[in-house]
Amino acid sequence: MSELASSTWEEVVIGGEPINMQLRPASGQYQIAGKYGSKDSPGYVALLTCGEVTYSGRPVNPRSTARAPNGRAAIADWREYGESTGSEITVREADGTIVYNTEIDQGAPFVALSDDGTYLAIAPYDGTTRVIDITTEKLVLLHENRIDERQKPIFVGDSPELHLARNKGDTPEYAISLDDSLIWKSDDFDTHDFIEALSLEAGIDWEDTLQQLFEIYQEDEDMMEAVADKLNEASLANIDSIETLETIIDELEPLYDVTSDDSHKRATAIVLADAQYRLSRMHRRERNKEQTLAALETSIGYATEGLPWYDAKQILADCYRFRARIHKQRGRRQEALTDINRVFDLDSEYDVRLKREADENLREELSS
């Protein structure tokens, strides 16, 4: 059993106090109840047999739990969520006796137990899912995740098979044996493999590739995150064609328009900002003054949409310093000073190193 098992919320009496807790599975002889911890108070965990509490404890932050049909329970204490504090995983018998305990450096793991309680799956945010034989305490499988950085595991059958769902999913996308052989896969698994194989860099057919990503994003909600992740990997370096950059912009703008998730919109906006910035540089080389400034203004708009991500800050700083030099060459010293000051403002506001020695020299020159 694991995070993928059914659950329900009920009051569980611990030390005479009723606590509203999540029970997993929703029914059955053996259940595990949990409540997350907070900054002010540790969490709760309780083992129930036929509705009666047989063990209770106060881990710091018990965010993932599992209960096997033989009564064994696994508890992953995430400690401080989002912090690099590692995690503690404990397996207990129905009466609370500890049969296995380990600490890992990685954070926020999901856990699962095989039906006979022999195998424990641990799936943290490190791109792997590992399986431990609780009896021998030996690692029997270290699986490189095929879809997400963290995946939800669940054991199925006596063999057993390990089925894996997406980090935010509720349905397994593929299954493996304990020798790491692929047993079956979903259609989404094949789509994800297709996206992973794509390379967004100079030399590809940008029009065809971006059209395919747009179609996947519109037609398959489960693949939206994978498309956004692929855009985060895009590299426009070494593109030396105005036509190519304009193609990228033309194909990405419809995707930008349909994104509603903030992180997806930022990912798309940053690629568009980068393309417009590079386009402005090419227009400048060809002495197309108006196109240069228009592309810069558009780049600034998209990069602002990408804040507070670092790539967006970097593009904004590049745009402002480039435009400052254009204004200076045209004798517009005040406009140039305003733009170079914006680089310093970004540096200060986000506490990140963006300004360069050349920026300091230019600001000093324009201020004199």
Question: What descriptors fit this protein?
Answer:
27% strand, four-stranded antiparallel beta sheet, 368 residues, Methylamine Dehydrogenase, Chain H, alpha+beta, Serine Threonine Protein Phosphatase 5, Tetratricopeptide repeat, five-stranded antiparallel beta sheet
3D architecture notes:
This protein is of the alpha+beta class and 368 residues long. The chain has 2 domains: 178 residues, Methylamine Dehydrogenase, Chain H, CATH 2.130.10; 176 residues, Serine Threonine Protein Phosphatase 5, Tetratricopeptide repeat (Alpha Horseshoe), CATH 1.25.40. Helix content is 38%, strand content 27%. It is built from 9 helices and 17 strands. The strands form 4 sheets. The chain has a 5-stranded antiparallel β-sheet with strand order 1-2-3-4-5, with no helix packed on it. The longest helix is centred in the last third of the chain and has 24 residues. The radius of gyration is 27 Å and the shape is elongated. The termini are far apart.
Brief summary:
With 368 residues, the protein is α+β, with helices and mostly antiparallel strands. It is built from 9 helices and 17 strands.
Shape: elongated
The name of the CATH architecture of the largest domain is: 7 Propeller
| Ends apart, CA distance between termini | 71 Å
Give the structural class. alpha+beta
Mean pLDDT: 92
Helix/strand order, N-terminal first? EEEEEEEEEEEEEEEEEHHHHHHHHH
CATH homologous superfamily title of the largest domain? YVTN repeat-like/Quinoprotein amine dehydrogenase
Secondary structure: number of strands: 17
- The CATH class of the largest domain, by name, is Mainly Beta
Task: Give the biggest beta sheet.
Answer: 5 strands, antiparallel
Structurally, the number of domains stands at: 2
